[in-house]
């Protein structure tokens, strides 16, 4: 069973044009893929459908075998615990410590403090920020803040990690470091999908690319074991 399956998914917002049009694809368990396309192509909409932050107008979205769009609202918290999300502006709380920011999803999920502490340390360790627990995010660099955001996204040990422009504000070197972090999560079995405008970076990194063009999906194919730049001829026309 794939980790993610979109089956003929279209999404129209009230009063708007179609944001996604008959999108079908699968992400295998443990796969790493980029989602790219011009501004307004539908990238964020596609990610939101997996979290039931939006519902499709047509078609079905499956995460871990469960149909997300018909899922009861009582099941949605369980879905969201399976899925870690990283945002461009990381949405950290600046009046809380790094520890409190990363621990937040665990507290919401009802973890005991000792178990939460263990998991927060493991998550901070996985992004190279062990020892930053008592710091305030405002004292950290942009790259470090983004790592805190990633630690928070993985603290629940999600099976699926989604990122929406996670390197949007970072310089090329830091962006590459952040992408390498995502790759490390893939290496331990997490399925990763990253929406990004940064074509230069993803061409350097290789991997499968899902390309949205005005709501229509093109797929570079499952090239995750190919070398960098392999198979990227399709979609070279896509505006960024
Ligand atoms: N809540 C909403 N209500 C109405 N229209 C929306 C809403 N959210 C998105 N749209 C429209 O749907 C289309 C796709 O938007 P979406 O945010 O998914 O694109 P995107 O590829 O993530 O863009 P960007 O790279 O600029 O973030 C756009 O035309 C947008 O204006």
TrEMBL record:
Residues 217-240 are annotated as: Disordered. PROSITE patterns: ABC_TRANSPORTER_1, ABC_TRANSPORTER_2. SMART domains: AAA (SM00382). It is a peripheral membrane protein. Signal peptide: none annotated. Keywords: ATP-binding, Cell cycle, Cell division, Cell membrane, Membrane, Nucleotide-binding. Pfam families: ABC_tran. Residues 231-240 have a biased composition (Basic and acidic residues). It is found in: Cell inner membrane; Cell membrane. GO terms for molecular function: ATP binding; ATP hydrolysis activity; transmembrane transporter activity. GO terms for biological process: cell division. It comes from the Bacteria. Homodimer. Forms a membrane-associated complex with FtsX. Belongs to the ABC transporter superfamily. This is Cell division ATP-binding protein FtsE. It comes from Thalassolituus maritimus.
């Amino acid at each position: 069973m794939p980790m993610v399956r979109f089956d003929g998914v279209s999404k129209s917002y009230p009063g708007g044009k179609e944001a996604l049009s008959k999108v079908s694809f699968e992400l295998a368990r443990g796969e790493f893929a980029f989602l790219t396309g011009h501004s307004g192509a539908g990238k964020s909409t596609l990610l939101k459908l997996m979290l039931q932050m939006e519902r499709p107008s047509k078609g079905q979205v499956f995460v871990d075998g469960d149909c997300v769009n018909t899922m009861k609202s009582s099941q949605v918290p369980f879905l969201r615990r399976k899925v870690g999300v990283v945002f461009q502006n990381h949405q950290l709380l600046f009046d809380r410590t790094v520890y409190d920011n990363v621990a937040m999803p665990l507290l919401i999920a009802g973890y005991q403090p000792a178990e939460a502490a263990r998991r927060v340390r493991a998550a901070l360790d996985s992004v190279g920020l062990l020892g930053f627990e008592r710091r305030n995010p405002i004292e950290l660099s942009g790259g470090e803040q983004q790592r805190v955001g990633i630690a928070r996204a993985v603290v629940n040990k999600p099976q699926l990690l989604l990122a929406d422009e996670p390197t949007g504000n970072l310089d090329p070197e830091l962006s590459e470091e952040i992408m390498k972090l995502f790759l490390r999560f893939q290496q331990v079995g997490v399925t990763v999908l990253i929406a990004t405008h940064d074509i230069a970076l993803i061409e350097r990194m290789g991997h499968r690319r899902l390309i949205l063009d005005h709501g229509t999906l093109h797929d570079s194919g499952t090239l995750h074991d190919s070398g960098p730049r392999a198979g990227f001829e399709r979609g070279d026309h896509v505006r960024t």
